[in-house]
Design a protein that fits this description.
The chain has 255 residues and is an all-alpha fold. The chain has one domain. It contains 13 helices and no strands. It has helices at 2-17, 19-50, 54-58, 62-86, 88-96, 99-103, 109-141, 146-173, 177-192, 194-198, 203-212, 214-222, 228-253. Helix 4 packs antiparallel against helix 9 (177-192), helix 7 packs antiparallel against helix 8 and helix 8 (146-173) runs parallel beside helix 13 (228-253). It is globular, with a radius of gyration of 20 Å.
Length: 255
């Protein structure tokens, strides 16, 4: 565990000693703020109209009308930006030639992969923690439910972790950081929109597409529905790509 944390600490230091971490945080908060403020304005306008009709006033729900749309919109941003956090984890080491030192160290492959992945997850957790500040205003001026909010954040974290697991694998495959960004971005986008393709499918094909789609498992969590099959899906997805990454590094270590 100490070795795993040492790798993670080293990677976190590299994030914060370069502009990458700060740029990602800044862009994330900028986009988050845009989506959040847009949802608040729409909710405010709808509330003014609903005030004239008691039936519509009863339908107001800040979780579903402000927080859920913000969570759903920010996943598009995750698709584009999270690969930027994983692109250098292995690719840069390979390009600089420092990967040989890493692979010949007494660290196990599991510790190397786990430490680098842990660093990226901590960055993701910090990003989400920074966004919580905006949600506090909904408690000051509104009455959101805490449970759906927490489940929504869990869904965001799990989806981000899945995107990063894919990015880590492709970073291990190439020394080009451009490739390590573009390829996982495209693959994650394909898995993201599979549920759209499922609309025109039927039978077993529809079930398979729905199950493989990120959105199918994320949408319920955004609405505050915590289903173990969704958690199992994301955890299994992360494990699969981390296993592939482990296999790539293991084969390279014993060449």
């Amino acid at each position: 565990m100490r070795n795993l944390w040492s790798i993670a600490k080293k990677e976190l230091g590299l994030y914060f000693r370069s502009p990458v971490g700060y740029v990602v945080f800044f862009i994330f908060l900028l986009i988050w703020g845009f989506f959040f403020v847009s949802a608040i304005r729409w909710f405010n306008d709808y509330s003014l109209q609903a005030a004239q009709n008691p039936y519509y006033a009863q339908q107001l729900n800040i979780n579903l009308m402000v927080l859920a749309p913000t969570f759903q919109n920010i996943t598009i941003f995750f698709l584009l930006l999270l690969p930027a956090l994983t692109m250098r984890l292995f690719a840069e080491e390979k390009k600089l030639g420092t990967d040989e030192l890493l692979y010949t160290s007494p660290l196990s492959v599991g510790q190397i992969v786990g430490g680098k992945y842990l660093a990226s997850l901590i960055m993701l957790a910090v990003m989400l923690a920074l966004s919580v500040v905006s949600c506090l205003f909904t408690f000051i001026y509104g009455n959101p439910e805490i449970a759906p909010l927490l489940v929504g954040y869990l869904g965001l974290f799990l989806m981000g972790a899945a995107f990063m697991a894919v990015g880590l694998f492709f970073s291990a495959l190439t020394e080009s950081q451009v490739v390590a960004v573009i390829v996982p971005m495209g693959l994650n986008l394909m898995l993201y929109i599979l549920s759209w393709a499922a609309y025109s499918a039927s039978g077993l094909r529809k079930e398979v597409l729905d199950y493989l789609s990120f959105l199918q498992h994320f949408d319920g969590m955004v609405r505050g529905v915590l289903d173990t099959k969704d958690i199992v899906y994301f955890l299994s997805f992360c494990f699969f790509w981390l296993f592939l990454t482990h296999s790539v590094i293991q084969s390279r270590r014993w060449r």
